[in-house]
Amino acid sequence: MGKIKVKDFNLTHTLDCGQIFRINRVNDWYFVNAQDNFFKIKQIRNEIEFHGVDKEFVVHFFSLNENLPKILKEINKDKYIEKSIDKYRGLRLIKQDPWECLISFICSSASNIPRIKSKLKALSECFGKKITLDGVCNYTFPPPGKINDYGKIMDAKTGFRARYILEANNTIDTKHLNSLRTQPYNLAKNELKKINGVGDKVADCVLLFSLGFNQAFPVDTWIKKTVQLLYFDNNNVSNDRIREFGLDYFGAHAGYAQQYLFMYSRNDLNKGSSLLMA
């Protein structure tokens, strides 16, 4: 069992903000799947305890080596993002495997978090390998080349996404995805968009949550509604315009701003929150 003292980290906010899906909470513990890794982790105040992976993995996976106070200071441009930061401080970007991230967000198209989790669980059970931790059974995420049966992909209730998943399985390899880390943002994004089923939002999610492009600003329904309300006088504007706004306004760490606004939007903005009141 490993332990790490942490500063400026909130495990719950980080795991519950929709950037990763193969997680389950059992009492105080989160059981987390990350490709071949299956581990459990919990936080008590300024200490995290974990089992199933080593300290190096945890520090990298949860971006614990990033200077979060500096990042938050850079994106704290106005009263709206400030309120989001105040409530969800400690949320960090996860550095997950790009292949698993790609398939996860292909599955996210026209879906919600419970259904995405269900699809990924079914794909892992069908094509992955069984793995056990402290009596809890789960499955590894299948690598490229292993999600190779269209009928079984359909049985995972992936619907129209099934053909995209099979095509990605047959044409994409981890080496190619990892090579995108060294490309400029726009070139890396265009490469991802060559994959059928990958548009702007999915590409930006893969760039942000697995490839280290902190400037990526994914635009989904929640972000579109929130940014229009807060920054465009509730006028309808295109996803491209919102994406450009996020990049220009928040800068090199726009993806962090996106996650903080996403959490406030999903959890507070439609519940009479005071985000607009100042």
UniProtKB/TrEMBL annotation:
GO terms for biological process: base-excision repair; nucleotide-excision repair. Gene3D superfamilies: 3.30.310.260, Helix-hairpin-Helix base-excision DNA repair enzymes (C-terminal), Hypothetical protein, domain 2. Its EC number is 4.2.99.18. Coiled coil: none annotated. GO terms for molecular function: class I DNA-(apurinic or apyrimidinic site) endonuclease activity; damaged DNA binding; oxidized purine nucleobase lesion DNA N-glycosylase activity. InterPro entries: DNA_glycosylase, HhH-GPD_domain, HhH_base_excis_C, OGG_N, Oxidative_DNA_repair_enzyme. Keywords: DNA damage, DNA repair, Glycosidase, Hydrolase, Lyase, Multifunctional enzyme. It catalyses: 2'-deoxyribonucleotide-(2'-deoxyribose 5'-phosphate)-2'-deoxyribonucleotide-DNA = a 3'-end 2'-deoxyribonucleotide-(2,3-dehydro-2,3-deoxyribose 5'-phosphate)-DNA + a 5'-end 5'-phospho-2'-deoxyribonucleoside-DNA + H(+). Residues 107-266 form the HhH-GPD domain. It is an enzyme of class 4 (lyase). Pfam families: OGG_N (PF07934). Belongs to the type-1 OGG1 family. This is DNA-(apurinic or apyrimidinic site) lyase.
